[in-house]
Design goal:
With about 90 residues, the chain is mainly alpha-helical.
Length: about 90
Amino acid sequence: MNIDAVTARVLDFIRTEFLWSDEGREIDADTPLLEWGIVDSLRIALLQAFILNEWDVSVPAVRIDAKNFKNAASIATMICELEQETVR
């Protein structure tokens, strides 16, 4: 799994699903999603469903925290780590 490709796909999902009404807002891999209010508890649930559908990776409750959903890069890192744990 290529982390850059995962990050790009996560960013695309966030732009399409969460920022559709805010077309002028630019985000990148390091944008603080929680701080800026782009991601909240409901949207984390939507991200969980997206991650499961896109990569067949289930995010356990213990991994749902501010560190793992801080930005697109941290979400991608978590996805890659969970995918590696699944492969073992």
